[in-house]
Write a structure and sequence with these properties.
Bact_Sigma-Reg; 6-stranded antiparallel β-sheet; 12 helices; about 35% helix; Phosphatase 2c, domain 1; Beta-Lactamase; alpha+beta
Length: about 400
């Protein structure tokens, strides 16, 4: 496709999207398939479990069945964010990762009579635009959300998922990737982050209790954290602000948390561990240390007991990774009451790093390993966040 033709296609897609409902996106894609020399173009979105790729429905969309992420080439395209091709006697198919920035949304399927280099060049650009359309249209209806759900979502989980930032951010110097389970019934676990200039501000929360009560407390913690952060408070002041709000509004509750700030230009890390499991520092594919924990009482208890937080400082080396997690990760257990444990967690992460998996794929596989370990029935919420620091000036090129 000539540049002018591609620009016309992108322009027509954008124009069509201005008045589109979420379910109209699939129809628009179908109508524009001939413009990319394809018989059919289909968008698949990954479900909340990240186990299936589910076709986005629409009045004119071709009929498709869900596709497993594990054990299929389309799933591999999603997992590794690479383009793959399949062929049979009837058609050739190109499977293109569907990315919103760096967050994996699903895959794009293009059915053609023959795959050309032009397809390989043009379709990733089209997929990028379609990802943007999916994300902007999703706010105007429920079609995108319903496509991603394999079962009804409990209210506590609904509250938290609507608060969370994207699961993945990858910049020039840092990568952040997170997971939450059980995704349809999570209550007290959550995370938040913001990248402002060279500073990554990150927090992970775990409210005591379960269900809607825990979700309500965690929601307050997230919003209080954002409010304090955006108000320009320093790390200790942020702790004090969130701690105070929880103590006032939920005097019998508390939230364990890690609040941290990473300077992506220097590798300087400042952190507060508020009654939370210690973060793991991994270097050269091996566990280096567990950070000091706790350095403060859980949020909601600090002011009540007159305890000020201690901010500790660490200096990272290029390539370092930090894993933050809630106790539900290591406390997942078999029917024989054998815990998943820290040693098994470290072994899993180091093996994934040896396999050179990306941060989001490492976390996807980790949460599935935890679920499988407990036969798919978690006793507690299990959440984790992986942070990678790889300064561009050191590597000479963007690391991710």
């Amino acid at each position: 496709m000539l540049v002018a033709d591609l620009l016309r296609l992108l322009s027509r897609l954008l124009t069509a999207s201005h008045h589109a409902r979420p379910e109209d996106v699939a129809a628009a894609i179908t109508r524009f398939a001939p413009l990319v020399n394809a018989r059919e173009v289909v968008v698949y979105l990954v479900d909340y479990d990240q186990r299936q790729l589910r076709p986005l429905p629409g009045p004119e969309a071709p009929a498709r069945a869900p596709i497993a992420v594990d054990g299929t080439l389309p799933g591999r395209a999603f997992a590794l964010t690479e383009i793959y091709e399949t062929r049979d006697e009837h058609a050739h198919r190109l499977w293109v990762p569907l990315l919103n920035g760096t967050e994996r949304l699903g895959v794009l399927e293009a059915v053609t009579d023959a795959i050309s280099d032009q397809h390989r060049h043009d379709l990733p650009l089209v997929a990028s635009l379609l990802a943007e359309l999916v994300m902007t249209r999703r706010a105007y209806g429920d079609a995108v959300e319903l496509t991603r759900r394999r079962q009804p979502m409990q209210l506590a989980a609904e509250v938290l998922w609507n608060l969370l930032p994207p699961l993945t951010f990858i910049g020039c110097d840092i990568a952040v990737s997170a997971v939450l389970e059980p995704c349809y019934d999570v209550g007290g676990d959550a995370f938040d982050y913001a990248v402002n200039g060279d500073i990554l501000r990150l927090a992970i929360f775990d409210a005591a209790g379960h269900g809607l009560d825990a979700s309500t407390i965690t929601s307050l913690a997230i919003n209080a954290y954002r409010n304090a952060r955006r108000g320009g408070l320093d790390l200790a002041e942020i702790y004090n602000s969130v701690d105070g709000w929880i103590a006032r509004k939920h005097p019998h509750a508390f939230v364990t948390a890690v609040l941290c700030e990473l300077n992506a230009a220097t590798g300087a890390l400042r952190r507060i561990s508020a009654g939370h499991p210690a973060e793991l520092l991994l270097r050269d594919g091996k566990l280096v240390t567990e950070f000091v924990a706790p350095t403060a009482l859980p949020l909601g208890l600090g002011r009540r007991f007159g305890r000020s937080p201690t901010v500790t400082e660490e200096t990272l080396q290029p390539g370092d990774r930090i894993l933050l997690y809630t106790d539900g990760v290591i406390e997942a257990r078999t029917l024989d009451n054998e815990f998943f444990g820290t040693a098994r967690l470290v072994e899993f992460i180091t093996r994934a790093l040896a396999d050179q998996l990306s941060a989001p794929e490492t976390m996807r596989r980790l949460v599935h390993a935890i679920l499988d370990y407990q036969d798919g029935q978690l006793q507690d919420d299990a959440s984790a966040v992986l942070v990678e620091w790889q300064p561009t000036a050191t590597s000479g090129s963007p690391p991710y």
